[in-house]
Amino acid sequence: MRITFCLTDTNPLPWLQGFQAAFPDAVIEEWARGSTPADYAVVWAPPQQLFDEQTALKGVFNIGAGVDALAKLRLAANVPVVRLDDAGMSVQMAEYVCHAVIRHFREFDGYEADAAAGKWSYRKPRSREDFPVGVMGLGVLGERVSRALTQFEFPVLGWSRSAKAVEGVRCFSGSDGLNDFLAATRILVCLLPLTPETENILNRDTLSRLLPGGYVVNVARGGHLIDEDMIALIDSGRLAGATLDVFRTEPLPAAHPFWKHPKITVTPHTSARTLRDESIAQIAGKIRALEGGADIGNLPGVVDRKKGY
Ligand code: NAP
Ligand code: GLV
Question: How many CB atoms lie within 10 A of CB 304?
């Protein structure tokens, strides 16, 4: 068996070593132009050329949850694409989103500014009933995040493509459910995959439908958000602010207004990092299953190429 690796912006060495330990008899190598055809590819943001040359692949494993970078490439229709299925990401995402929601709700950003100015002053307690949190995307990450938010007793709403039932979460689905979902949401969390249907979904129209004082937490992809629409709504007072982990251009350019905006918190695409050991174990387990004759359609994380996630 031969497994080829193309991990843009990631040190491949520990990955190669981890897979060699998992498959001592296999050829584990970094992809380069003209490489011998491999059985499997493990990738992050690979170039088109890999798929033009590697025409014998039995599976492509993405070392992230989002496959939007792969969706832009031409891959043979019969090659299964498998994304990470949690692999330690959902608990990180729950931490990040709960932190962002609570920081905003409890006004900890204001207390941080007060402390920096040596100022001792209380803010009035707020009612969590006035801060319903709406999670767009109730998949592996969105569902975990929604459940975590219910533990803090926020009213929680969720929106997905197909109808879902999550205990303690008021669920909406499809384009028919979107307006009711937005109209009942104050803090909006985006955990959608980036697809042609969801691109630019956080725009002037949708963000204006949130309850007054709306707040945006985007942890999915920068392409979901129209930056200037959100800034205009924050500056007009329609929205209270945002916590953003993902951007159209990453790293976020130094001149981008998000950096210095007093109501916007920026983090460097770190809300749910790929955990190497968990990911190697998950992918190796799937390769073992496939080599043992498992039907790839039964493995979690197989991407529906038509839907794009
Ligand atoms: P997932 O399990 O595939 O869940 C996607 C969810 O979005 C599903 O509930 C799906 O609905 C819903 N959805 C998709 N298209 C929709 C549409 N047009 N309208 C309404 N709902 C739609 O994905 P995941 O593992 O939770 O990951 C979600 C995204 O998070 C990834 O694609 C990635 O972009 C992002 N992410 C970011 C980071 C970070 O560090 N910032 C880390 C990991 C992932 P159905 O359930 O009905 O299919
Ligand atoms: C990170 O953004 C991922 O998609 O895993």
Answer: 8
Q: Which of 246, 274, 282 to mutate to test the pocket of ligand 2 (most atoms within 8 A of CB)?
A: 274
What is the rounded CA–CA span in Å between residue 275 and residue 258?
28
Rounded CA-CA distance 139/161 in Å is 10
Q: Structurally, how many domains does the chain consist of? A: 2
Catalytic one of 269, 273, 288, 305: 269
Owning domain of residue 163 = 89-266
Segment 63-92, tens digit of pLDDT: 999 999 999 999 999 999 999 999 999 999
| pLDDT of 143 over the 90 cut | yes
If asked whether residues 119 and 152 sit together in one domain, one would say: yes
pTM above 0.85, yes or no: yes
Q: Are residues 112 and 208 in the same domain?
A: yes
Measured from the CB, is residue 309 less than 6 Å from ligand 1? yes
